[in-house]
Amino acid sequence: MTRLIIHAGSPLAGRCLIPGDKSISHRAVMFAAIAEGETTIHNFLDGHDCRATVAVMRELGVTIDEITPTDLVVHGRGLDGLIEPATVLDCANSGTTIRLLTGLLAGQNFTSFLTGTAQIRRRPMERIVRPLRGMGADIMGRQNGKYAPLGVRPARLRGVEYDLPVASAQVKSCVLLAGLYAKGLTIVREPGPARDHTERLLQAMGAPIEVLGDTIHIERPVEPLRSLEINVPGDMSSAAFLLAAGAIAPGSLLTIAGVGVNPTRTGIVDALLEMGAQISYENERTESGEPVADITVRGGDLRAATFGGRDLVTMIDELPILAVAATQAHGRTVIQDAGELRVKETDRIATTVSELRKLGARIEPTPDGLIIDGPTRLMGGPVESHGDHRLAMALTVAGLIAQGRTTVAGGEVTADSFPGFEETLRVLGGDVGVEA
Ligand code: S3P
């Protein structure tokens, strides 16, 4: 177990790059595997979760060359080229891996089994099993498909019309991938703008997918999916920790280069702007069908705000770090309509409250969100990651402004999504140490 040791220090300053987007990295490998020909992926996220996707795709017969840890070449096997895995597919701690893959496997002509860590085996799978069964999939799992391990038997799928009960990109993508193998049209309707990387990438690969507002249509391709060269943009969800750190540490001025600014992911930028943060985009461009920009943030005063509604999904992974920023904002910040936080890597409402309180934050849980009063002078102390990468990073940022010394136990999890997190903060002037 690694402990992160943080002291408040100088403002953050400078320019940095961040690792590739986690959601896009998973999808790039999975979709390249069922395309025809070779796909080169640059700036792949070399983190634990995406490594799990590479490992399971190899078990499914896919050859993946690692030119460097972040540059991969995937040798596509075509839509029907995957082979029956000889072992249980270990999705490690990655919800995206197990949920997207189950959709991809539901229409194959072989049997497969999927599992992951104890954390993954506690997370809800009924949300994907139910629509897949509605398409004719033959899936079993613990408690009649509520939890992994999951078993998938060969089945002939048929297209469905499915209204997502929650805005979830993992569920949406799972059904769309099954739709690639189904007879007839699959139609998915979403209640909020969940990240759309699956739609963008499949579209770029030539899949018959059509997006009409909240409704997505997909059909089995007649032509093979085309291979591509994919440049994965920097992960907004990783940038968020630096943006928040820069916004709350007085005197900071930092630029994060090459960040994906897909509007389904930029809720945290909008939220910080609404709180009065100074954030600007430069050098805006499009790479591999995704909008990208360099982002600059300056430290300053923040004011409280209320967040909720259908757009909350665009910052669902950023709420722990938003809560940290809110401890420094003047007034009462309210986060609502965020019940999904309860089924992430941890119950992030409970863990964010319990850990930030240890640092003196005035924060209350609600059934579907958080209430935070600020500003509060945080006091350093021992806190725990609970095995949750985003909580560990949010607490590290809190430590950068807390008086005295903060220690984050179980800090190794930052590498699930942001390998090099501590080093990046150090380069920007943060006082962050690592103790084995
Ligand atoms: C993801 C979707 C989101 C997000 C997760 C990554 C994806 O989960 O929280 O970190 O890559 O599709 P949900 O679909 O459960 O909201």
Key traits:
single chain, 436 residues, alpha/beta, UDP-n-acetylglucosamine1-carboxyvinyl-transferase, Chain, 2 domains, five-stranded mixed beta sheet, 14 helices, 28 strands, 30% helix, globular, binds shikimate-3-phosphate
Give a written overview of the molecule.
Helices cover 30% and strands 31% of the residues. It has 436 residues and is α/β, with parallel strands linked by helices. It has 2 domains: 3-20 and 233-435, UDP-n-acetylglucosamine1-carboxyvinyl-transferase, Chain, CATH 3.65.10.10; 22-231, UDP-n-acetylglucosamine1-carboxyvinyl-transferase, Chain (Alpha-beta prism). The strands form 7 sheets. Strands 3, 4, 5, 16 and 17 form a 5-stranded mixed β-sheet that branches. Strands 21, 22, 23, 24 and 25 form a 5-stranded mixed β-sheet that branches. A 4-stranded mixed β-sheet has the order 26-27-1-28. It is globular and about 60 Å long. The structure holds shikimate-3-phosphate. Shikimate-3-phosphate binds at residues 23, 96, 168-171, 173, 195, 316-317, 340.
Quick structural gist:
This protein is α/β, with parallel strands linked by helices and 436 residues long. The protein has 14 helices and 28 strands.
Kindly provide the name of the CATH class of the largest domain. Answer: Alpha Beta
Structural classification = alpha/beta
- What value does the Rg take, in angstroms? 21 Å
Helix tally equals 14
Biggest sheet descriptor: 5 strands, mixed
State the helical fraction: 25-40%
- Strand coverage percent: 25-35%
Query: The CATH topology of the largest domain is what?
Result: UDP-n-acetylglucosamine1-carboxyvinyl-transferase, Chain
Low-confidence stretches: none
Reported CATH architecture of the largest domain: Alpha-beta prism
Mean pLDDT: 97
Q: What is bound: which ligands?
A: shikimate-3-phosphate
Q: What is the CATH superfamily label of the largest domain?
A: Enolpyruvate transferase domain
Please tally the β strands and state the result.
28
The CA-CA distance between the termini, in Å, is: 6 Å
- The number of domains: 2
Shape: globular
